[in-house]
Amino acid sequence: MTRDATTAGALSAKRDTVFTAAMLLPGALATVVLILFALSLVLFLSLRNNAGPLLGEGFTIENFVSIAIDPLYWTVIIRSLSIAGLVTAATVVTAYPVAYYLAFHAGSRRGLILFLVTLPFWTSYLLRVFAWKIVLAYNGVLNSALIVTGLQNEPAIALLNTPAAVVITLAHAYAPFAILPIYVSLQTIPTSLLEAASDLGARPFTSFRRIVLPNSMPGVLAAALVVFVPTVGDYVTPALVGGPSSTMIGSLIQSQFGKANDWPFGSALAVVVMLVILAVILLARHADRAFGSRT
Amino acid sequence: MSAAGRSADGRLLGGYVVLYLVFLYLPVALIPLFSFNDSIQAAFPLKGFTLGWYQSLADNEALYGALLTSLFVAMIAASVATLCGVTIAYMEMRGGSRAASVISGLARLPILIPGVVAGIALLILVNLAGLGPSRSAVVLGHVLVALPTTVVVMRSRFAAIPKSIAEAAADLGATGWPTFARIMLPLAAPAIGSAFMLAFLTSFDEFIVAFFLAGAEPTLPLFIWGQLRFPKALPSVMALGTTILVASIAIAALAEALRRRGLSVTRPAPGRIPASPVTATR
């Protein structure tokens, strides 16, 4: 801290140390206790037997072994990955044109559109999911609207309680999450780069493929991550609109800490989720580096 | 790319953006629509206008209890998260301390933790601490969930304050605390208000983590979750949902207005990106 050197004096230096410590304290407490310690508790508990005291007994890898050998868990994990993967792909692909419009075409409407796409972010997630329950119900909004408009004579769409309903609902609930990161990365592309491409005779699609897309890749990957993480662990949407055939890994964790009452096993499932997310992050990092070198 | 071609592209994309916004808002708009509909079924055709479902909310004791719990939890969680957000972001921007940037990175980590994992981690923690599921436990959970938001909002604010201001303060003899309290805090005041409101909203609407941590006193989203089991309660849930939506939108709009005003204090025309934790994963 060179600027402090100009106002030297041992007293003020000591005061500065006290100040620094006091300012770091709230953040240090919150992050160390609520994040680091709490997550280590999950890891610790996942290696314990489900018995007696809160933190279980003994050390074992039994929990992970049961997950590895039981095909049921593989089915659920693969289903969670597929649902989250589909939701991520759908949200990123549909969000990209919106981000592109915001970055290059929106003009004076940019502020308003940005506000409109971020607003759902601050409304209740539970209500967004609930809205789809009434839309997709057998006697619900969608089917009744089709009947009223004369397109169908009887309820025709039976989406509720299928994995498709989970994908649609999650894609809608997390749609706005994908726009901002992509928009931010598109905004950093200098327009001179696009002008140069066009001066050199690049057709619009070529300059999109060679300049815009590679340069926006960090934003696309960030968007994919912020959609993937909450959806892969979701348990509310499967419970509300998914039915028994859409059980996801989040639902299993929730039941281990509820009805099934096997906290160590639930923790092991949570560790598996975190490992999956870590793998996805590393993959995204790797992809990012592959694309990032072009800038 | 010719100018004409570009504007044609723009119109096409503009049409797409309109459709996208309709898709974004239509399902949610159904909740207010059917909250005024005189039928238990949420289906077309509409049966007639009624305010009955709103009246049915008026004398629901459990609802008031949940509302008070939610307000209490959101006030405290947002205050703590804002305090942490301000200090974390300021210390990181001030530089010179490795701990500060590590803490700031950690504070944004919850974006990468699914709610269910955060929920069970804190459930184990509060049980270990002897607290058990309770209002205080939900407060802790919501501090964790709101932390990335407050840190991100405050970071972008402190980053927008020119370095020369802190340097001038140092040249004039101001040390750590006076610089922070008398120069930086006033400059950042609107952003602090914005961070607080967004943290408040995050907590007020949060369900996934609260589900694990609430004891005998449910928060409002947990109350709604309980009501979803009863088909007869659906219209009242929609009336309640509409009220919550309107309040959330008002608070979010206010927070955005404050944040923009805050940015314009020291920067003439910033790239106006609404602060949101999703822009900060990188």
TrEMBL record, chain A:
InterPro entries registered for this protein in UniProt: MetI-like, MetI-like_sf
Compartments, record wording: Cell membrane
Membrane-crossing segments per the record: 21-45, 72-99, 111-136, 156-184, 219-243, 263-284
Membrane topology type: Multi-pass membrane protein
Transmembrane helix keyword on record: yes
Residue ranges occupied by any ABC transmembrane type-1 domain in the UniProt entry: 77-284
Biological-process GO terms, alphabetical: transmembrane transport
Stored PROSITE patterns: ABC_TM1
Any single Gene Ontology cellular-component annotation: plasma membrane
Keywords assigned by UniProt, alphabetized: Cell membrane, Membrane, Transmembrane, Transmembrane helix, Transport
Family named by the database record: Belongs to the binding-protein-dependent transport system permease family. CysTW subfamily.
Name recorded for this polypeptide: Spermidine/putrescine ABC transporter
Record lineage: Bacteria, Pseudomonadati, Pseudomonadota, Alphaproteobacteria, Hyphomicrobiales
Automatic annotation (TrEMBL), chain B:
Domain ABC transmembrane type-1: 67-255
SUPFAM superfamilies assigned to the protein according to its UniProt record, in alphabetical order: MetI-like
Single GO BP term: transmembrane transport
The keyword Transmembrane is assigned to this record: yes
Topology with respect to the bilayer: Multi-pass membrane protein
Any single Gene Ontology cellular-component annotation: plasma membrane
Intracellular or extracellular location(s): Cell membrane
Keywords of this entry: Cell membrane, Membrane, Transmembrane, Transmembrane helix, Transport
TM regions (residue ranges): 12-36, 62-90, 111-131, 137-154, 187-213, 233-255
Coiled coil: none
PANTHER family in the record: PUTRESCINE TRANSPORT SYSTEM PERMEASE PROTEIN POTI (PTHR43848)
Record family assignment: Belongs to the binding-protein-dependent transport system permease family. CysTW subfamily.
Name listed for the protein in its UniProt record: Spermidine/putrescine ABC transporter
Organism: Hansschlegelia plantiphila
